[in-house]
Amino acid sequence: MGRITLDKVTKSFGETEVIPPLDLTIEDGEFTVFVGPSGCGKSTLLRLIAGLEDTTSGQIRIDGNDATQLPPAKRGLAMVFQSYALYPHMSVRKNIAFPLKMAKMDQAEIDRRVDNAASVLNLADYIDRKPGQLSGGQRQRVAIGRAIVREPSAFLFDEPLSNLDAALRVGMRMEISELHKKLATTMIYVTHDQVEAMTMADKIVVLRAGNIEQVGSPLELYREPRNLFVAGFIGSPK
Ligand code: ADP
Ligand code: MG
């Protein structure tokens, strides 16, 4: 579970076409990074996959099923927001449980999932604290926990570390990579940071003005950048 395909997907805001026809396949279990300069359409592309924006044309399939018209909650994906989206008055447990409560899930199952997420994320000791009593990294883990409990077929991250300081960012990168290994679930990760892309990705999608310039592993992009834009962006010598 977790294979996502985009078939001639486009997105326009008014007269402006932000995503020209775009084809892309994300394989089950892959860690895919969308990278490119600010304004190139990374967030828009992620939001189209999540269902937070409607496509102008084209088709999005998730695990073979047409998801183009499905609302976000029916797509089986979980978007990880930045940690400042936590509820300050709720404990870690309640923050993580929140999406399941909203879905009216059975309390015993909620507890099981929250305990499991807390254990995977090393949050068990902090479960009764409020977000204000946590470090930035711990808060970010709570935000990820909220996605894990939904047991999604894919996780979508939009620059989740951009409001953390540099040292913490490096640690969280490693934690998210570890999490990917533990869960073996598809992850799509948006960043404008080349280093993040090169160190975390199985597959990198380089975007410029809504166009895919190149798709490949970090090594492929480094060794054989298709053009000067990719070379310049990835930092290899071509
Ligand atoms: P990135 O995440 O790569 O920085 P975005 O996907 O946020 O880029 O934006 C891509 C382009 O689409 C930008 O030119 C942006 O101004 C435009 N855009 C994004 N969202 C909207 C919107 N809701 N209405 C109009 N234009 C938008
Ligand atoms: Mg963005």
From TrEMBL:
A molecular function (GO) term: ABC-type maltose transporter activity
Ranges for domain ABC transporter: 4-234
Signal sequence, renumbered to the chain: none
GO CC terms in record: ATP-binding cassette (ABC) transporter complex, substrate-binding subunit-containing; maltose transport complex
Superkingdom of origin: Bacteria
Keyword annotations: ATP-binding, Nucleotide-binding, Transport
UniProt family annotation: Belongs to the ABC transporter superfamily.
The protein's name: ABC transporter ATP-binding protein
Gene source species: Sulfitobacter geojensis
Entire protein: shown range: 1 to 238 of 334
